[in-house]
Amino acid sequence: MSSLLITNPATDILITIVDGDEPADVRAKYQAARAAQPGWAALPLADRLACLSRFRAELAGETPKLARILTQEVGKPFQQSLNELKGTLERLDFFLTETESALRDETVRLAAAGSPLTELITHVPLGVVANISAWNYPFFVGSNVFVPALLAGNAVLYKPSEFATLTGLAITRLLHASGVPKHVFAPVIGPGKIGEALLAQPVDGVFFTGSYATGRKIARRIAGRMIRLQLELGGKDPAYVCPDADLSTAAASLADGAFYNTGQSCCSVERIYVHEQIYAAFVDQFVAEVKKFRMGNPMKPDVYIGPLTRRPQIKVLDEQIADARRKGAKVLLGGQRRANHRGSYYQPTVLVDVNHRMKVMKEESFGPIIGIMPAKDDAHAIELMNDSAYGLTAAVYSRDEGRARTILSRVNSGTAYWNCCDRVSPRLPWSGIGHSGIGLTLSKYGIQTFTRPKAWHLREC
Ligand code: NAD
């Protein structure tokens, strides 16, 4: 048994020490899950729905307590932790309502007089799946996978991030209390090397949320095993403000999109392009919006910017800013970590005079910093938005829907936003292009993805 130290990133104080798994524990959990899965899959869907419906009630009942745990271990401002839990309940409602129709058998050809062949599609659970999760939205990114995976009849080996272990254990406790058998949903606790031990098991699918660097390692590890692999990875999400946009709405919306969750969202706005006619006015309004954000103790209700969850990210941000400065960028706001203060706080930072030779416009920042750059026209903005290895989301602000849709249809991204950003809907598929990953979660396709379609050719004789 190894020990995992859980530290509060706002204070650097140790919260607790948790027992982690060893590779032998992971093997045993896999074997138990393998043995338990057929029984779970054989239950009527109504029984699995009843368990997950009780889980929803448990989450709703414990929301303030769970939000406190989340804020303590990842530093997410308390109101934003509450928002994540509220959003998770909405996702649960979606899955509870839609799974039956998404997994219903589909008769695509019906036998008739003179044509005795019926063709049918059924949805078969994958079996035992690995769910390796990130820390930045542990309720969201976890439940996008384990809820539909369980409803579809799979057993789930769930590895929460080592930076969100307490939340992962709380999720486990509530699922078991809701009637999900303990071998059907088993937590795998520990750092990346325990994730590797999980990947060493002969699972039937791997569903990963995390960085491109880890996703690439996992893809290499899984290659050749011919199992379902989904990778929900990072982003360098762009937004473009057209000259006809409502400037104050765009500035407020984009400041929120860039700095919510202290910039640690996969779909945070990470680059802003503004038509040159309105560039100066937009930058003024944007900076004014960012100045309103209060940074501090994330337990306080009015705090909007908390600490970074992972201390090493301070170095990443410092390096991006130093690189940008060396190449001519100007820092309008922030530019360094919060001085003389405990915790991994980084000042909200706004950079201008940036270009695509700078890391800050090309590499994921995953923190409270943003670069703003003028674009000559819509074509130039499209070119800049597409100049990225990532392709998760893209946003356009304009009064003209046709103009926005024309631009967004030419931008390589899984998600397109008109006059909004940094939002996820359970009703829409969540997917990325390029380094943002492969596969999808959410929507009816994000339910079916935990099954394989089986084709039936049925001929009456
Ligand atoms: P990470 O890649 O460091 O870790 C993710 C998970 O992988 C953790 O549980 C970790 O323990 C595990 N892991 C690490 N090395 C492993 C290995 N070799 N084998 C198996 N498992 C291993 O990512 P993170 O810091 O937790 O999350 C931040 C990243 O996640 C950002 O890039 C963000 O954009 C991305 N993200 C993407 C989405 C999305 O939906 N596309 C959602 C949330 C976060």
Give the SSE layout.
Layout: E1 2-8, E2 13-20, H1 23-42, H2 45-61, H3 63-74, H4 78-102, E3 106-109, E4 117-125, E5 128-132, H5 138-151, E6 155-159, H6 165-177, E7 185-187, H7 192-199, E8 205-209, H8 212-222, E9 228-232, E10 237-241, H9 247-259, E11 269-275, H10 279-291, H11 313-326, E12 330-333, E13 349-352, E14 369-375, H12 378-386, E15 390-391, E16 393-397, H13 401-409, E17 415-418, E18 430-431, E19 433-434, E20 437-438, E21 440-441, H14 445-448, E22 451-459
Parallel strand pairs: 5-6, 5-8, 6-7, 8-9, 10-11, 10-16, 11-14, 13-14, 16-17
Antiparallel strand pairs: 1-2, 3-4, 4-22, 9-20, 12-13, 15-19, 18-21
Helix pairs in contact: 2-4, 2-6, 3-4, 3-6, 4-5, 9-10
The structure holds nicotinamide-adenine-dinucleotide (NAD).
> What would you report as the Rg, rounded to the nearest angstrom?
23 Å
Biggest sheet: strand arrangement: 12-13-14-11-10-16-17
Strand content: 15-25%
The first-to-last residue Cα distance is 60 Å
Average residue-wise pLDDT:
97
The biggest sheet, with number of strands, parallel, antiparallel or mixed sense and barrel status, is:
7 strands, mixed
Considering the chains and any ligands shown, give keywords for the structure.
single chain; 39% helix; globular; seven-stranded mixed beta sheet; alpha/beta; 461 residues; six-stranded mixed beta sheet; binds nicotinamide-adenine-dinucleotide; 14 helices
